Structure prediction request, 242 residues.
Amino acid sequence: MAEPEVLLRKLTRREFRQRMQSGELKACLIPIAAIEQHLEHLAMEHDWRSVCHVAVAVAERLRPRVLVAEGLMAGISEHHMRHPGTLTLQPGTFLSVLSDLIDSVVRAGFKNVLVLNGHGGNIAACRSNWDQFQRLYQVNLQFLSYWDILTEADAKTLLKSGHRLPEDLPGHAQEFETAVALAAFPDNVRTAVWTDQPDPTPALATAQQGLAFLDRIVERVTAYVAEMIEGKRVSEIPPFFP
Prediction:
C-alpha cells in the first residue's frame, strides 16, 4: 500500500478533502526561495531546490500529518541583478503572492502554517510584515529560514572555511551551500570551475559534509513543525489596537 502523499499538488480534490475532514492533516509548509546567481559553479535554482528538499524530507518524517504546498520559486534578488539570468520580484509583488498562498491554505483548513525560507533576500520583507499576516490569518503562522536551526557549534564542527553566522553559514554559494548541493543534487555543481573564481571556499565542500548538514537541518526542522502541531510552539498573534 502506497504511503500518504506529502505534496499538495499531487492530491485530487477528493483526496485532499477526505484527509482534511478526517483530521489527519495538521500542518502545511510553504517553501519560498530564489532563482539567482550562485557564483560560477552552482546552478541558479540552488535556493529553491534546497528548501524544497528540506520541506519534503520534513513532511515525509511527519507523514501523514503534513503537506508541502506550492511556494515561491523566485524571490527578492535585486542585489544579484548585475548577473544576467537572475530572476527577481519587487518586494510588494513577493509579499502579495505569499499572502495569497497563505490565505489559500488557511481557507483550506490548515491551522499550522510554516513558511520555510531558502533565500536571505526574503527575510527582511517577511519579518517587517509578519505581524500583519498574523493578524489577518489568525492561525499559528510561522516563518523560518531553514539554516536558522544551525548554530555556531555546527559551523565549527562541519565547516573548514569559517564559522561566522551568517557570513559563512549559510553564506552565499560558498562551502555550506556547495556541500548541500553535492549531497542532495550533485548535478548542480560544476566542480571543473569551482576554483576558477575569486572565492576558493566552495572547493572545500564535500558530499559527506553536506549530508551531515542536511541530517541536522531535517531533524531540527521536523522537531520545530512537530512542536507546532503539538501546541508547544505557537506564534503569538499581535493584538489589534482598541
Q: What stands out?
A: The CA atoms of residues 135 and 240 lie 8 Å apart. The helical segments are 13-21, 46-61, 91-108, 123-137, 152-158, 175-184, 207-229. The longest strand covers residues 27-32. The two ends are 54 Å apart (CA to CA).
